[in-house]
Amino acid sequence: MQAFPQLVFSGVQPTGNLHLGNYLGAITKFVALQDTHDCIYCVVDLHAITVAQKPSELTSNIREVTAAFIAAGVDPTRHIVFNQSQVAEHAELAWIFNCVARIGWLNRMTQFKEKAGKDRENASVGLYAYPTLMAADILVYRATHVPVGEDQKQHLELARDIAQKFNNDFLVDNPAYADGKGFFPLPEPLIQGPATRVMSLRDGSKKMSKSDPSDNSRINLADDGDTIAQKIRKAKTDPDALPSALEGLAGRPEADNLVGIYAALEGKTKLNVLQQFGSGNFSTFKSALVDLTVAKLAPIGSEMRRLQADAPYIDGVLRDGSNRARERAAKTMSAVRDIVGFVR
Ligand code: TRP
């Protein structure tokens, strides 16, 4: 039983080249949750600087993510869209969480090991503490549900551990919390299905990635219709026709990926797609995929470019969202200061 009111929180890093994988894996989920939940969507710029960023690129990447949210259908008036650095309470709660989390817990984080690579001594302290800031992002609103990719599951487990330890350490002798409900909820992941794992268009065994040197490996959300069509037409395939059953996709990562993209964009299962196109010519399927992808994404891309050209509008959305977020976060922090025993 969730004793806390349901609240969705998620964050996206402003690191540039937002692509189809981000759209299907995260942004479409954010859009769908708006109908059933109170939602807060955050552009996590404090997380972005855990690795080196060029200031001017960071600025435009923050606006790019914001534009993508809005172009895809996130409503910043009914919900909250803002950037993390404008709400200082995130960093403040992260400090307290740095004193709750154990070094041993952070040492187990696989993403730190991957990102720091061999030269761990030279990674920033911020990169190491990344997961405690992520826990603070969620818990400063006492959010209960967090749509994230599979790769963030471990960080979310850490957020639960931190919430649990905070509740245990600080509330046992506090009569105001004698009901045992705790101060922080234990936030639950809403994990995307495997169907939305979008792979590179050049190599079906690699995830579609912002950092792939080949721009043809990904469909950027800001691409125009012609560029999208060209990239899909050039996408790697194999010489066989499409199968009519799922088993027929085994060992065919490129075909599997394109069928998965079609299914996700159309809101169908892969089996539905194979029933429609199976055993037909691959090029028939590819033309249909070109049409579908262009129809779904080109309008989002053009709206994104229009919004990105209007920086004062985007910045106004973020400022308004930040003001509303700060109001909520400040309430949590007042209570946290009392619970910890600070004088105010
Ligand atoms: N670490 C997440 C990612 O890279 C981004 C993120 C930061 C986040 N804070 C968050 C996601 C809070 C969900 C909730 O994808």
Could you explain the architecture of this structure?
The protein is 53% helix and 6% strand. Strand 1, helix 1 and strand 2 form a beta-alpha-beta unit. The protein is mostly helical. A three-stranded parallel beta sheet has the order 1-2-3. The protein has two domains: 221 residues, Rossmann fold (3-Layer(aba) Sandwich), CATH 3.40.50; 92 residues, Tyrosyl-Transfer RNA Synthetase. The structure holds tryptophan (TRP). The site of tryptophan (TRP) has 13 residues, from strand 1, helix 7 and strand 4.
Oligomer: single chain
Low-confidence blocks of residues? none
**Shape estimate:** elongated
Estimate the helix proportion, in percent: 40-55%
Q: Separation of termini?
A: 34 Å
CATH fold-level topology of the largest domain: Rossmann fold
The hetero compounds bound to this protein are: tryptophan
- Determine the CATH superfamily of the largest domain: HUPs
Structural class: mainly alpha
Q: Using the coordinates above, name the CATH class of the largest domain.
A: Alpha Beta
Helix and strand run: EHEHHEHHHHEHEHHHHH
Number of helices: 13
Strand percentage: 5-15%
Question: Which CATH architecture of the largest domain?
Answer: 3-Layer(aba) Sandwich
Average pLDDT number: 95
> Structurally, how many domains make up the residues?
2
Q: Compute the CA-based radius of gyration.
A: 22 Å
Main sheet characteristics:
3 strands, parallel
Would you report the number of β strands?
5
Strand order of the largest sheet: 1-2-3
